[in-house]
Amino acid sequence: MGIYVNPGNRLFEEAVHSPIYVDKSGLIDYTNSILKTQRKNICVSRPRRFGKSMAADMLAAYYSKGCDSKGLFENLEVSDENRDVSAGEQAAKRLESYKANLNRHNVIRFDVQRFLFDESHVPVFIKRIQDVIIRELRDEFGGCFDGGDELYGMPGVLEQIYAHTGQGFVFIIDEWDCVFRLAKEDVEIQKKYLDFLRGLFKGSEYVDLAYMTGILPIKKYGEHSAINMFDEYSVTDSKGLGAYFGFTEKEVREQCAKYDVVFQEMKKWYDGYTLGDYHIYNPKSVTDALTWRKFQSYWTGTETYEALKVYIERNFDGLKEAVVEMLGGGQCKLDTTIFQNDMTTFYTKDDVLTLLVHLGYLTYDEQTGKVSIPNQEISQEFVRAIKVGGWGSLMEALNRSEELLKSTWAMDAAAVAKGVEQARRDTASIIQYNDENSLACAVYAAYFSAQVYYMKPIRELPSGRGFADVVYLPQRGVDRPALLIELKWDKSAQGAIAQIKDRKYADWVKGYTGNILLVAINYERKKDVHECIIEKYDDSTGNYEKNGSLF
Predict the structure, then answer these.
(1) CB of 515 within 8 A of CB of 543?
(2) 297-352 pLDDT per residue, tens
(3) Same domain, 177 and 268
(4) What is the phi-psi region of residue 232: left when phi exceeds 0, alpha when psi lies from -120 to 50, beta otherwise?
(5) N or C terminus: which one in the chain shows less Cβ crowding within 10 Å?
(6) pLDDT, mean over the chain
(7) Mean pLDDT in residue range 520-540
(8) How far is residue 122's CA from residue 181's CA, in Å, rounded to a whole number?
(9) Distances in Å between the alpha carbon of 518 and those of 380, 486, 535?
(10) What total number of domains does the chain contain?
């Protein structure tokens, strides 16, 4: 058993024996299915504390010849004790593969961050990685290669070992992208590092499996230094592996029941990440909330809000408007394809927002192509960032939002018109105020507090014969009316109310809630006034209770 070559299973043993452990061993079925195939190189990128290292520890414990891990896996999903072999031929094959590969492989496992935790290590970390691993390879396979390893490095040594023994290796590399985060501006060392990885893996017979994890997807450098032999599984394209990194909703429900913790509070604080078909919860935060029985920011406490502040203050058209809209619970369309997979190359707001997705500050919905702030934990971090970022006027709008919400429930149209007017003025330095979209953005800021009582607002809700601009549906168990908001620019609030009724917007909403408030807001540019009309729809009678005012 070595440190890097054929390591032991101590780290995975600690995970399995921890008070809160969620079984992710189903990942092994997938990695076994791609062993020694053309799909054998995979790179998994996820935000900090989303279970990447735990999965790496698990794979090392499973494949490594340097330990006996049968006892650690015997009660897990992947083992023969928990398989329904009567489920069919595929289930039987997976079980056979599990047994055949358990502790049967040479493993090289290393964490790049251990070699690169200080800027002074940048010039020498590639050589240092090779030196310590070759030293252990010499202890294990010393008779299989000569002393020319200084010239040919790890690839040359591994080729000689494979030629003599016919034995391949499983590579498990954690924090593979550390250099792109620590040495953000050092393009040359980044290219040398990618060349090292390309030389190690491209066309290499000794590779049985290469499994890399990090925060960022693989850096794009055109044709130079491309390591395009890797399949990437990222937060913007999870390719079916979404359930293995982070906790699924089913798993969180089970843990909440076990520890007698209110699931709805857990959902509000830590849900919101979407990976394929799964809603994923931050495992660090969920585990801490279960342990300490207190809901607060845990994951974000591992990094200051100043890191977020640096990115949201970038001067790109539409970036600040997007932040305001998402703070209010809205979603923004996002093109993730032009992102260069680093922390320095930004050309548009989409580059910044895509980085924030990979860092875990935003969530991306693959089906809709939209991005949003996932939950209350992250929303708090955005609020902290704008407090110290010169967005003081926006903070005023957010602080006043609770009063606006109360005025809406009270059907005080005059107060709502005044509140939206003030929110518009508060956000004028951030939002280019010239159309209905900018009015909607101001409304999101004005109704910031709604996320305590309502689900994420729906923009352009499909109804009977049209679309409502913004819809707030109450959370389960919350006794509040649904808000159906129609916005107009240089028209009339009365016309907006008529449109809601004529197109039967309420027909879609009433199946999800009890009372419904119709809120019509019009901004008349020449007079610089906001007009508001609020009507209550009673589903049992079909009648409307009216109130309206001009500010």
Answers:
(1) no
(2) 887 665 566 778 889 988 888 898 899 889 988 889 999 988 888 888 899 999 99
(3) no
(4) beta
(5) N
(6) 88
(7) 86
(8) 11
(9) 30, 8, 5
(10) 2
